[in-house]
Model the fold of this input.
Amino acid sequence: MKKKWFSASCLMLLALCFTQHQVFAQAGIGTATPDASAMLQVESTTKGLLVPRMLATQRQAIVNPAAGLIVYQTDGTPGFYYNAGTSVAPSWVVLLNGESTVAASKITGTIGTSQIADGAVTTAKISASGTASSTTFLRGDGSWQTPAGGGSLSQSYSLTLTGNMGATNAMTTLGTLNNVAPGTYLVNIKLMLTANTGAIVVGVNNGTDYLASTSASGATAAPFNREFTFLVTLSATSNLSVNALVGANGGTALQSGSGVTLVKLY
Done:
């Protein structure tokens, strides 16, 4: 009788030891050799792993959720949620569900230039405030800025010049550009003439002062076609007159192709 009692006790002790060993060893489902780094390894080629599914109110009602706890929410914004906070102060974060775009509300950190490909972000989407247009540019701090003096970055003005060069050695107005916005412009004046006018001076005037001018020497033969280029800066909206002075053959008519163009640089 004692021998049988001893044998039963040994069997119970061995079973207890075996149970304790199983509690602390790795477990495998679908595999007899779970990876040494995993407490639990599940393998299947026909089925997946289904985590608890619940409503948002049920997720929020979990008492003291462990950090890293994962559930699948079925209503509201469906998806996998995990507790990024602590059990005392939970902070539930939704994981991206294969979205091709990321809502601005989901970006909480800083995206560096190394994460953005060249040309990946259009100008209109860079700033949440301000307007991307030809009248603004984006500063390095992310705010929109109007060019100094206003106006448009792509603004240009042009005018066909007609008529005659006027009297010799007299400054003559060839045309006027009205309401030119403030800014710095590249001015191009082209004069197509059938006769040599000798030395010639051209410039632009805002009605009070000559803002800029340049000159060219005469030619030995006609036609006397000349092109003048210079910069002019306007601090306020102005009417600009194009003026010319010739050293000889005043009254020479301007031919087709004569004109003035202003292109805003900044």
